[in-house]
Amino acid sequence: MHILISYPIQMATEESKRLLVFIFCVIIFGASFVFCLFGFRNNNWIHATNGTHLYQRGLNVDCQSLIDAPRTLSCKGWENLEADPYNGSFGVFVQPDIGWTLSRFLAWFCFVAPLLFLFVSVVVCCSLDAEKALLQGKYLRTVGIIAAVTVVLNLVLILLISLWKRHVVYPIFREPTNEVEIGIGFAFIQFSIIGFGLCFVGLILLLSPTIGPLLKMLPCIKSSHNLVPSTIES
Questions:
Q1: Which residues pair with 54 in a beta bridge?
Q2: CA distance 154 to 115
Q3: Which residues make beta-bridge pairs with 74?
Q4: Could you give the CA distance from residue 85 to residue 83 in angstroms, rounded to a whole number?
Q5: 179-219 confidence digits (pLDDT tens)
């Protein structure tokens, strides 16, 4: 009799824990989306400064201003950029190249990911049947693949921006003068580090009950698993 009573209690406790995990996922993905949204719209992905003037490059526009006078900030789209901002005092100006176009594409894809998984978290939080279908059923592989692809693309985005920072590809100005400093702006950190870092934590929580079954779906693990019975029989 004691076993019969304790079993439903144990089941209820497990469901409560899963529900709590999914609620945390909703909060984390929501915060991730907000950080990614502000990071994507912020123009300070990479900046150049000489102590008095500031030049910023985002994913859509370039901006320039006086450091001590933020209201002087003026921005122009990539198709209308000045050929020689600040009269060449910052160095040789470089127009956004194909690398920046690729970065904008990657950022768009990564920007959608937190919103997508926020929706998934809300759905599985509200419905046990949806949890079984999405995280235990035939859609698990799709969810796992999308999660893996978005993480890899964000790592590629980080790699691209890091290469620009290290002047493998010059970010805004080539051969900058000695007093000009070029660095990564807060928008990049806000988007790819904080925003997508939260998204990664949310993915681990969301997929934690199904990481084992998800790994078993990988071809390399599948093939090695299928070889075990034949080896025993021989």
A1: 49, 65
A2: 15
A3: 64
A4: 6
A5: 888 888 899 899 989 999 999 999 888 887 766 655 666 66
